[in-house]
Amino acid sequence: MAIPTEGEIVQIHSYKHNGRIHRVWQETMVLKSTPKMMIGANDRTLVTESDGRTWLTREPSITYFHTELWFNIICMLREDGVYYYCNISSPYVFDHNSIKYIDYDLDVKVFPDMTYTVLDEDEYEQHRLEMDYPLVIDEILKANIKKLIGWIKQRRGPFAADFIKVWTKRYELQKEIKNQQ
């Protein structure tokens, strides 16, 4: 699998289990990329919904994607702290200059004090039935919610104390480099 390069601008494409596009983030800058994970950042990027509506993100965010984990994490940098929006999803693939994954509706919102709440369980149940998610997918997703909550409690990955500082600094440096080119 090809991987994006540091400094490259990529799109993020979210799909539903039935293959239909769900949402597209127009521009995310790659801060780090390995064969297994990608860390990116964006600020006030255009987002297009499946129905054609568009909106701009309100704050800078650091994104975390992995090829083996069934979740991705958006770290939103707000004035009162970092909020995390975690999508329970398929592992990502990089294809045609885009990060692509299947969004499975379930989300975990994490607050600056590291308390969290699981969202959209009713939407998940509705789509699980409508799109006939296989039992194995249901089991994988539920196991990955537990894994994600473990990461939150243990302050692993994007939840680690220095993660945001390191990647925000890297994002500012990359933006300076891009502006000088």
From TrEMBL:
By its UniProt entry, which Pfam families does this protein fall under? DUF402
Gene Ontology terms for molecular function? hydrolase activity; metal ion binding
Lineage of producing organism:
Bacteria, Bacillati, Bacillota, Bacilli, Bacillales
Could you identify this protein by its name?
A: DUF402 domain-containing protein
The record places domain DUF402 at 18-156
NCBIfam families reported for this sequence? PRK13662.1
Q: Which domain of life is it from?
A: Bacteria
Mark the transmembrane ranges: none
Which keywords does this chain's UniProt record carry?
A: Hydrolase, Magnesium, Metal-binding
Q: From which organism does this entry originate?
A: Kurthia sibirica
The question of whether Iron-sulfur is a record keyword is answered with no
